[in-house]
Design goal:
alpha/beta, Spore Coat Polysaccharide Biosynthesis Protein SpsA, Chain A, 2 domains, 10 helices, 50% helix
Amino acid sequence: MIPCLYIIIPCYNEQEVLPLTAPMFRQKLLDLIAAEKIASTSRILFVNDGSKDKTWELICKMAEAEEHIIGISQSRNRGHQNAVLAGLMEAKDRCDITISIDCDGQDDIDAMDKMVDAYLAGSEVVYGVRSNRDSDSFFKRHSAQAFYKFLSAMGADIVYNHADYRLVSSRVLQEFADFEEVNLFLRGLIPMVGFQSTTVEYVRKERLAGESKYPLRKMLGLAADGVTSLSVKPLHLIMNFGVLVAIISFIGCIWALITAICGKSVAGWASMTCIICFVGGVQLISLGIIGEYIGKIYLETKRRPRYIISERTWEPEK
């Protein structure tokens, strides 16, 4: 049986790059159909993530002109991860497999052929993995590598050098729909579902137009979300560090007591100030990390919707 494929493409303020990449995605879809790797009912699903420019207008025009292109629009900007989730949940009952990919044209679309082949060979999840980072700047390359190493060190189960370019079968998505986390980190959640998986390497290119939607600030926020959403290791580190500080402090108290008994004690303002500042800093950092987890718990208990679709380019079935 030839599988039906939905290509999920999140878009946020992409009016500059969309006219360049949309024809590329369309041609790739048609090539896969012509090669009889996917069914003719396959579609490209653009997800407008509350863009403030003409992105949604462009998606609507393309959907009117081409039957293989459809789109949905969120009621407001919810972030990249929620936009991808909205597309996946919208597609899971309409297709056999999905491939999520960014709109900027940096991910090699020819890797889709290998992904589909891997699915046909038995894999339910296929991760697109960058073979190198030669196209990145020095800072971007090393910060990204530090990002993945930090997540791994903190206990997050992720695939190294994998972003959100992946094939996921509808079977996996049906199970993933039961994951109700509000704080999403798909790179860590998808591996938790299980099922047979593999990787496909590709070379990432330069962005064709527009600006990156993931500056350093968002990368740091994504790393924090990934760690606090998937691991409690930072809490364990706090406890271990607290025990270490307590032991050092206890040794210091014994030393101070012995010094006082021997009559060799000297008033030391500097040493006392350093100790107070050090312990105070440790306490504030610890409270900050604990507060991050409490904040996540607060948001999870509210159970707010992770996305709200306000418009579709087609009439939904009643």
